[in-house]
Design goal:
Heat Shock Protein 90; single chain; alpha+beta
């Protein structure tokens, strides 16, 4: 039986090769795999066969309310992303029953910020004919949240090499984690419309909270955990990009105002501008 986690996702990328439709003998899957299988299924236009009731329910959109996981949501453009982000956040927050009102508010801000920024990246940069798929899950036993988004687009290198001198997917992923890096050419009020805070903010929050992430772009996987990076060239490349992160409840620093002041910007920016927060 296959147990598929964010920590071993590269071992199961072979399942997305050559219109494979057999996803049997799966015992456990995390959101990263579920978002990938939905993007793959839509891209290849195939039916998926599995004996995992959980995976089957998610593929068939038979979502059960009052669960610790969200339904799979599709991201095609920026329209409706605020609603999706709010819905995902509400589902996650109902699991945090012992937080103070102030901590609950700040955690809500963290989650909504991360969800909307990572979905904006798909909407603006993926160039994926099937869009992207997102979901989140809270694990009560480990007290952690995992969020994942997967698309079947062009990946990081094709986007960033238009503005930066980079030659590999690994260089592109690392570059995308820097503050203010974006491939967009759109502007709003003199600023680039996508301010390049999405992956940078994710990285800073996860460093601060002892969290983890996996980024896949075509033939390359970058993993961050235990304050260090690991890069892998993939034997079975993924056509597009995947971003998944998780952090533990016990390690979260909930002071969102402190984070915005000290990590996102050093000048006064209108907080109501959706591109900043």
């Amino acid at each position: 039986m296959k147990n598929i986690y964010m920590s071993n996702i590269e071992d199961y990328l072979y399942m997305f090769n050559s219109k494979n439709d057999n996803f049997s003998a799966i015992n456990w899957v995390e959101p990263i795999f579920i978002t990938m299988i939905r993007a793959y299924q839509n891209d290849e236009q195939i039916n998926i066969f599995t004996d995992s009731d959980y995976l089957k329910n998610m593929i068939e959109k038979d979502y059960k309310f009052n669960k610790t996981y969200s339904p799979i949501e599709k991201v095609q453009n920026r329209n409706g992303l605020d609603k999706i982000s709010t819905h995902l956040t509400e589902i996650m927050l109902k699991n945090f029953t012992e937080l103070s009102p102030a901590d609950t508010r700040d955690l809500k801000n963290y989650l909504q910020y991360l969800f909307i920024e990572l979905m904006n990246n798909v909407a603006d940069h993926a160039h994926s004919s099937v869009g992207g798929y997102v979901m989140a899950q809270y694990y009560p036993r480990n007290k952690k949240i995992q969020f994942a988004v997967a698309d079947r687009g062009i990946g990081f290198l094709s986007n960033l090499k238009l503005k930066f001198y980079i030659n590999t997917e690994e260089e592109a992923i690392i570059k995308a984690l820097e503050k203010g890096v974006t491939a967009t050419k759109q502007t709003m009020y003199g600023h680039e419309k996508n301010a390049g805070f999405g992956l940078y903010a994710m990285f800073e929050i996860l460093k601060m909270t002892g969290g983890r992430f996996v980024i896949i772009s075509n033939n390359t996987l970058i993993r961050y955990q235990n304050d260090s990076f690991q890069s892998k060239k993939l034997e079975n490349p993924w056509n597009g990009a995947v971003v998944a992160f998780e952090f533990d409840e016990a390690n979260i620093n909930y002071d969102m105002d402190y984070f915005k002041r000290n990590f996102l910007w050093s000048e006064i920016i209108n907080d109501e501008d959706e591109d900043y927060f």
